[in-house]
Amino acid sequence: MDHVVTCFVRNRGEVLLTRRSERAGTYTGRWAGVSGYVEEENEKAEFDARRELREEIGLGGASLRLVRIGETLAVDDEEGSFVVHPFLFESTTREVRPNEELAAVEWADPTAIRDRETVPRLWETWRRVAPGVEDVREDRTNGSAWISARALEVLRDAAVDADDWESVAEVGRELRDARPSMAAVANRVNRVLATAERRPEAVAAAAVRALSSAHAASEASSATLVDRLRDAEVTGVATLSRSGTVSECLRAFDPDSVLVAESRPEREGVDVAETAAEETAAAVTLTTEAALPAALADGDVAPDAVVVGADAVLPDGSVVNKTGTTGLALAAREAGVPVYVVAARDKIRPTGDDRVADEASPAESVYDGEESVDVFAPTFERVPGRLVDGLATEDGLLDGDDARRVAAEHAEHAAWDGRDDED
């Protein structure tokens, strides 16, 4: 039985589908991921996966990040007997160079697999690497824009596989409650379930549209902030923690300098600093939260503006973000440096919801000794609105009245779960 890899490459919520040419040898004319043989028995399948990605579509190195390796599955038909090793990679680019084994390539939502003539069990292969509710609940590395996109993928796939509305609704409830600190997760799930017809196929289609809109909102929010920074003639920025929208802003703005706090205890800011050094021409400085006040007063690294993301924006204008943000904002106020929050409208909490959820970092990430030492390591904190100079969204810079109107819209969508008796 031959062992093969099937690689799904994802970008902006879509995956790269490939149509196999006559040079592929098997399943000619059918759609697949990027696939190939595990060439040596002792080789790791990941090695073969990365080789096939380089050879078939010209992707590799920093442009690809391995997200998941799925459980294998067996295929046995007239073309042969295979053990399939599924992989999911995230790509920073859609620029690919197909080789002669591919007759066509297309970026498409994974649900397109269901409507095409594909290699055997391709949808099942996708499901073995696709995100699940637990991924949304347990992710402590990525920001809320990323995690809310994964929640929409979970809802979409659940709807595709469901036979009835209630089973889709149950997954929606799990997702809605999975990350109480991250408003975008609940808001985006609520909007889909509040506006789509109560049929699984309608929910799946609405989730696909919502996923596309979510990525567009992040880009537009970043553009709003970039315009503001350019108007203010900013040359250096400071940030902390990880925000995909902030990283997008840094790539587009390309400042002269970037100051990044490492964001203890998980230190996700280290990756942000490395990415900024790789993707921009900026002089990048990594520091600790404790050193931020000194850094903001140091002429060599002091920024002209602070730029942070948000896990939620409360109806009163305050912001929920990674612990350390309040200290940075206070230091910025003392130094006369403006603080901008970049966040899509979906990060504004519904009217009446002003929670700051208790999502503590793992205690062992702070102290793993044997003494009786308690650990206090909250992941998020509330930043007073008075310390924020602007909220950059896809609809421009919002003020308090704007935020309250958006919060009212989200509250209306959040009521979907109480309307079951209407149908």
TrEMBL record:
Gene3D superfamilies: Nucleoside Triphosphate Pyrophosphohydrolase, translation initiation factor eif-2b, domain 1, Translation initiation factor eif-2b, domain 2. It comes from the Archaea. Residues 1-135 form the Nudix hydrolase domain. Pfam families: IF-2B (PF01008), NUDIX (PF00293). PROSITE patterns: NUDIX (PS51462). Belongs to the eIF-2B alpha/beta/delta subunits family. PANTHER family: METHYLTHIORIBOSE-1-PHOSPHATE ISOMERASE (PTHR43475), TRANSLATION INITIATION FACTOR EIF-2B SUBUNIT FAMILY PROTEIN (AFU_ORTHOLOGUE AFUA_2G14290) (PTHR43475:SF3). This is NUDIX domain-containing protein. It comes from Halogeometricum salsisoli.
